[in-house]
Amino acid sequence: MFQVARVFREGERGRNHNPEFTMLEWYRLGLDHHALMQDVDALLRALLEPHCPVGPTQHVAYADAFQSALGIDPLKADAREAAAALRRRGR
């Protein structure tokens, strides 16, 4: 099942955030996050490879990406800790 829809943020606006945007969302019953990452990989390759070469991809879990980029655990850090980590990174 998938949906492409206009969505709205409440109160978020900035250089990287618009209050209104289009989002693609899809669900696949019985798939874990590894299989969903493979789905995203296949979708992007199908869209991009006809126009430009696509090299190897790296599949990274949500918490691992935060740990690598910001040095925090997004499942345990509160908003204050996340904001401090972003400031350290210059965001």
Protein described:
There is one protein chain. The protein has a two-stranded antiparallel ribbon. It is built from three helices and two strands, in the order ββααα. With about 90 residues, the protein is of the alpha+beta class. It has helices at about 35-50, 60-70, 80-90; strands at about 1-10, 20-25.
Distance between the termini: 35 Å
Report the major sheet. Answer: 2 strands, antiparallel
State the strand order across the main sheet. 1-2
Low-pLDDT parts are none
**Helical segment tally?**
3
Report helical residue fraction.
Answer: 25-40%
Oligomeric state of shown chains: single chain
Structural class: alpha+beta
| Shape type | globular
Strand portion, in percent? 15-25%
What is the H/E string?
EEHHH
Radius of gyration based on Cα positions: 16 Å
Number of extended strands: 2
Mean pLDDT across every amino acid position: 88
Chart the SSEs and their pairings.
Blueprint: E1 2-8, E2 20-26, H1 33-48, H2 62-70, H3 79-88
Antiparallel strand pairs: 1-2
Question: Briefly, what is this?
Answer:
This protein is α+β, with helices and mostly antiparallel strands and 91 residues long. It has three helices and two strands, in the order E-E-H-H-H. Helices cover 38% and strands 15% of the residues.
Defining key terms:
91 residues, alpha+beta, 3 helices, globular
